[in-house]
Structure formats: C-alpha cells, structure tokens
Amino acid sequence: MKSEVRAVRPSGNLAPDAFQAFFDALDEPAAVCDVALRIAAVNAAMRRFCAAHDISVDVVAEALSSAVAPEDGQSHEIDLVLQSGTSLVLTLSRRAETVAVRARVDTEVISGRLVVAERALLEQARTEGVLLDLGRSVAEAGGEEELVAAVARGVKELFPGRAFCIRIVDARTGGLTSLYAEGRLKEGAHEPLVLFQRSVEKTNLTPTALPQGRVTISEEVPLLFHGSTRAVSAPLVASSQLFGAINMEYPEGLDADPAHDERVLLQLASQVAVAVKNAKLIDELTFVRKYLEELLEKANALILVVNRDKQVVVFNQALSALTGLTKEQVLGRDLSSLVADSEQLRLAPVLAAAMRGESVNNFETRLLTRDGGEVRVSFATSSMLTQPGEVEGVIAIGQDVTVVKELEKRIIHAEKLASIGQLAASVVHEINNPMTAVATYADALLQRSRMTPGANPADQEKLKKILESSHRILRFTRDLVSYARPAQDRPERVSLNAVVDMAVGFCEHVVSQARVSVQREYASDVPPLAAVRANLVQVFVNLITNACHAMQPGGLVSLSTLQEGPEAVVRVRDTGTGIDPRNLSRIFEPFFTTKPEGRGTGLGLSICQGIVENHGGRLTVESTLGQGTTFTVRLPLAAD
C-alpha cells in the first residue's frame, strides 16, 4: 500500500524540544528512523503497543532492518507476524533523510480469525448439542434396535452427506447382533469386523481379548460402500469390551476434514458404547426375568408366592388349572381367602414360621376352587430374603395330593374287599360242602322216585328243582372263587361267549335289582382268544353294571359277539339316558363319574380301558342323549 505524505510546516520558530514533546504526546505508536531504517527515537505509545503484544522495540527494529525505505515523499507498509499469530502492520513514510514509522494491528486478519473461531465455536456447539440429544435418545431407547436407530439419526445429523455403517456385536463371541447401513454396502462387507489400528490404540482396547476370526485389526480402514474414496472408523468400547464399530466413508467430491470427523466420531462412539453395554445388560436382565417368570408360570408344579403382607404375588398356571381361579382373580388377595375355613388355624403358624425364615416341608392343606369345592395340596415353603437378610416373602412349591388321597382311600377299601373276599372264599367253602350233600341226596331221591311205581310226579318235580338250584349254587360259588382269585399274568385260550356269560351270571342280582332284562346275541363261530379270563370278566361285569345303572325299570341290555376280520367284537348296548357330549371325552379319566355321590368311584371305566389295551384291544363308546349308550370292545383273536 502506498500513500502520499505532504509536509506541514509550522508557523513561527519552534524549538526542537517542542517537536520532541509533540512526538512523545502522540497516541499513535510511532518511531523515527534514518534512511537505513535504524530507529532513532520511539514515542511512549509505541512502547505501550509493544508491551501489549508481548514484544520489545528490538523486535520492531529487527523487522525494519530487513525492509527497504520508501522513496522520498512516498510510503509503504510491511507485515510483522508475531509468534502468537497476531499480524502487525508497520507503515513507513519518508521525508528527505527521515523515515516515520507507525504501527497498528491488521484488523482484517483479526476479523477473519474471529470469523473462523466463531464458526468453530458454532460447530462445536452444534456437535455438543447433537451429542447431548443423542445421549438422551440412547438413554430412553427400549432395546438394541431402538438404540441403533437413535445412533443412526445422530450420525446423519453430525456428518451429512457421508455413508456410514453401524454394527453391534456380542462382546463375548463377536457375533453380529445389529446392523444399520446408510449407503450401498458391498457384498459381504459387514463381516468380519475390521478395526483401525490407530482407533484401537486411542480406546485402549486389548487386541488379545478380541474374539478370534470375528474381529481383525488393520493399518487402513477398509471401504465398505460403493463409490467411497476415504473412510474413518471408531470402535464401540466400554469397560475394555468391544461392542461394535461405526464406519463412515466419503463419496468423491465431498469437502470434509477427516481428522476432525474422526475426533468427533470417537467421542460419539465412546458415548454410544456405554449405552450399548447398558442396553445389552438390560436385555440380558429382561431375558433372565422373563425366563424365570416363564419357569415359574409354566412349571409342572404348584407355585405360590406371598409378600410380607401375606398378599399373593405369584399364582402359576398349574394352580390356576387346579383351582379354576385366574391370576387376575387371585393376585393381591390375602392368602387366607384361598384356604378352606377349617384350615385357617393350621395355616397361621406355618406362615408365621416361614416369615421368620424357617422352612416348612410337606404341609398339607385344602385350597378353595372356583366352583366352591376343595382340592388337597401339599406344599414345601422357603423364605425369600432381601440383601440385608430380611424376609421379603414366602414361596411355596407343592403338588396336588387329591388323587393320592383318593387312591389311599381306594387302597384301604380294596384291602377291606380283599379281606371280605377271603372271608367269602371261606364261606363259599363252607357252603359247598352241605350243598354238595344236598345235591347228592336230591339226585338220589329223584332216581329212587323214578324207580318207584306210583310215585307222585309232583314230588319228582320238586326234587328236580332242588337238584337244579343246588347245582346252580355250586356253579356260582365255583365261579365266584375263580373270579375273586388274583388273576395270573399268563393268558390262556378262552371262549369269548363263555366269558360274557360268566359276567352276566355275576350281574344277576344287579339286573334283578334294576328290573331290566338282558338280551344275548352271540355268534357261534367266534374263535377263542388269548386272554386273562378273570380280567376280561371284570371288564364285562363293569360294563353290564353301568348299563343297568343308566336305565329306568323296563330297560334292555343287549349283549352281542361277532368276528370282524382279525378281531373279536363285543357290544354292550343299553336303552338308558345316554351321556352328555361334554362328558363323553372324559369318561375314561380316573375318578371321573356322572353317577350320584356314593354310587360310583370313577375308576371302573379307566380300569376297563387299561385291561382291554393290555390285551392289545380297544374300548370305545357311542352315546346319544335320550336313546342310550353302546360300549364296543375289540380284542385280537388268538393265533392258530
């Protein structure tokens, strides 16, 4: 820059000291030099200017020593850049053999630097704002998928125009669990995970701790996207564990500062890694919690949990199925409301002991059901403790012992029947001896009467009836002993018609008492069976008895036998009331009965089905309400 300097001559005669005083009084930093630009004098403003910029007058003199003085009457400027980066402007003006020097700061440079600094501050503020919003988003993410979506939004806002890939891996195995890509990925580029050596060093990640074959370290960042020219990456590291990586790539022609981007990306990755770690921990805890809930809910055992206030907090499916009560009906209720009134006094000390931390085993009680009934259960209790060791609640695990108790009753009853059977066998033996004598004497008297001329025919008829009744009693007692005798497992060849007839004989009193009739339709060509006789008799006795109980007086029990292919078939048909379709699928279940209380145990048909199936056969039922029921027994024929 050049400018013209005009000399202003003062009026009057001023002394040199006056000019010196004027020079020193100038506010503008100034100095006087000779044509060789050697400083002759500097004013106070120049000294203050140098002190303000942390330099000495010698620095200004050194800058002038390398410059050239302007022509007489001309001026020009020279720049002096300080170590601090500040740029000073020295304006040199010459008049004759004297050069005046004025100093100032280059305001244009300062303004430019302020603009750059302002932009940097704004960018930093924007970056911090995005990172802050990202921190909120990842903290609120409900799972890994939501977290990856939040990170993707943050990366797009921080680095517009770049292609990027977010990969989340399992910290133990290195297996890929989530992937998000913004751009066109190359085929197979997402695995294995390649980490940039410099980024690994900055995050203090231990290479030896990385899963082999899943993660590798390279001196260069590989390009994952089509059309990219450069790339930066940052691993997601938290607690010295690798949770993935973020790769970012630049398309051709994009003006960006990769070094700056890498610094920001590492900062973002550090924040994201902690969030990913927490998300995975939450996912694991959620999985474990759900697994334990499912385990308790679907366990093949009765599980009940109450808190310190004796309120039910867990009531699993097994208990719901047993009692008919849903979880919604039970949760939050007092435990005592689920137990029969007669059990309240027994339950109180057990629950109190459990609340003190004492375990109780094999505690039997009765729970109420939805329909007002009761079921007998056996529980073992255990206390749940808090971290300080205080009892937080009680868990009870048990089983339904209703069937067991019923079976115990049946066993006792069976033992009584066995004792009665033994007594009956002794009675039968005592009956057989005199009845044999009665039959023998009756036969002898009948024969004598027939040989005596003029014998009364009426007496002979009476003797015949005595003889027939005696043989009938003997035959019945013989069959009764055979039926009561414990059955042998070894099958024998039996006649199906004879087995059914024997069962009818045993049921004569039931038929008579029900005042029904029996119709028999036997096929004469049914081959023999390989079966345990007493067991088959038991099946038909039970079916005939059930048929009699299902009919009103005057009903008819129809018994038929026939051969169908390789099977012998027996049908027991009644003209009773029939079975409700809702109960038809359950009649073979143990202890299920449609008979009134005290008339049936619900075990007969279940036992019959087991006997038939043990013989390789099938027992089926057909029924129509108001028309009757038909039971069909199919048994394999004996091999020739």
UniProtKB/TrEMBL annotation:
Residues 288-358 form the PAS domain. Pfam families: HATPase_c, HisKA, PAS. It catalyses: ATP + protein L-histidine = ADP + protein N-phospho-L-histidine. Residues 426-639 form the Histidine kinase domain. Residues 361-413 form the PAC domain. Keywords: ATP-binding, Kinase, Nucleotide-binding, Phosphoprotein, Transferase, Two-component regulatory system. InterPro entries: GAF (IPR003018), GAF-like_dom_sf (IPR029016), HATPase_C_sf (IPR036890), HATPase_dom (IPR003594), His_kinase_dom (IPR005467), HisK_dim/P_dom (IPR003661), HisK_dim/P_sf (IPR036097), PAS (IPR000014). Gene3D superfamilies: 1.10.287.130, 3.30.450.40, Histidine kinase-like ATPase, C-terminal domain (3.30.565.10), PAS domain (3.30.450.20). Its EC number is 2.7.13.3. NCBIfam families: sensory_box. This is histidine kinase. It comes from Corallococcus interemptor.
